[in-house]
Amino acid sequence: MTPGPEAFAEAARGMTGAPFRWLGRDPRTGLDCLGLVAASLTAIGIAVPPLPRYAARIIAIDRLTALLPQVGLAPATGPDRIGDVLLLQPGPAQYHLAIRASPGTIVHAHAGLRRVTESPAPAPWPIVARWRLS
């Protein structure tokens, strides 16, 4: 049985304070937003396929979002729930992943603060898609 969304959210919370590193995949040396999702999934026992490299500004995110069903994440509808993966859009051709940690917070790899942080929600950017452990 796959651990549930609460375990996933707690795993993400456990990464709080990890350093930020562009394309980072290891909480000891640094994570970016995709690395945070992957490390949180790994922490609850879900195998994650190799992650693609990507640019800071991308128009097509299909290569990244195609990985989500492979790890048991399905498109979500309705209000956000704890453990949802949120795709945020901070600006044109910019995307950012965050994990809903509680009704009032998200966990994400914050480039400006240079670490993984738990921040108040809603995020300051629009949510353009959402996935949930199925």
Describe the 3D structure:
The structure is a single chain. This protein has one domain (5-133): endopeptidase domain like (from Nostoc punctiforme) (endopeptidase fold (from Nostoc punctiforme)), CATH 3.90.1720.10. The chain is built from three helices and eight strands; from the N terminus they run H-E-E-H-H-E-E-E-E-E-E. It is α+β, with helices and mostly antiparallel strands and 134 residues long. It has a six-stranded antiparallel β-sheet. One of its GO terms (biological process) is proteolysis. It comes from Aurantiacibacter spongiae.
Number of helices, counting only DSSP H or I runs of 4 residues or more: 3
Number of strands: 8
Total separate domains: 1
Radius of gyration: 13 Å
Estimated helix fraction: 10-25%
Low-confidence stretches: none
Q: Which CATH architecture is right? A: Alpha-Beta Complex
How far apart, in Å, are the first and last alpha carbons? 11 Å
The CATH C-level class name:
Alpha Beta
Which percent band covers the strand fraction? 25-35%
Q: Might you state the CATH topology name?
A: endopeptidase fold (from Nostoc punctiforme)
Name of the CATH superfamily = endopeptidase domain like (from Nostoc punctiforme)
Order of helices and strands: HEEHHEEEEEE
Order of the strands making up the biggest sheet: 3-8-4-5-6-7
- Classify the secondary structure makeup into a structural class: alpha+beta
Main sheet record? 6 strands, antiparallel
Bulk shape: globular
Residue-averaged pLDDT: 90
